[in-house]
Design brief:
The two termini are 14 Å apart. The protein has a 5-stranded antiparallel β-sheet. Strands 3-4-9-8-7 form a 5-stranded antiparallel β-sheet, with no helix packed on it. It has one domain. Helix content is 15%, strand content 52%. By secondary structure, it is α+β, with helices and mostly antiparallel strands.
Amino acid sequence: MKQIRTILISSIAVITAFLTTSCEREYITKEYISEYYNGAKVYTREYAIQGKDWQVGHYDNGRTYLYAECDNPDITDNVMKNGAVLGYLWFTYDIEKNASSWNLMPYVYPYTFQNDEGTSITIGENTRFEYEKGTVVFVVEDLDGFEPDAMTDELIFKVVVIENY
């Protein structure tokens, strides 16, 4: 029970820190926070995934998805057993106003495109992450069951690892 309380308090502290501070983004994998909160150590890394870094994966039913696998040495055996891992996507929701924010994953958002007949079609696109010791995998999948369009833009992710002591 004490571990759950510590993780909960640490998560609230991390989220509060995100909401009240801004961090300089660099387009490389970077650890920029390493703090202790009530018996937990918090690590934060940013990943900038370029279009060329995405791989195509296939589910057992043949459906495809895009993924990018990255190292994260902060995800240890202790984190897997006693900690927590949170993932965020940097998303621009209003291009004209250059308005962006960190969005907790999984993050489902509408993706609108023109079909061959010129009709606008909107589908849901799911961006999520998976992790295991030493590794984080970012996944993008279209919810209509078709293969996601090739990524051309950079996507920026933030991974927060909370290690309980």
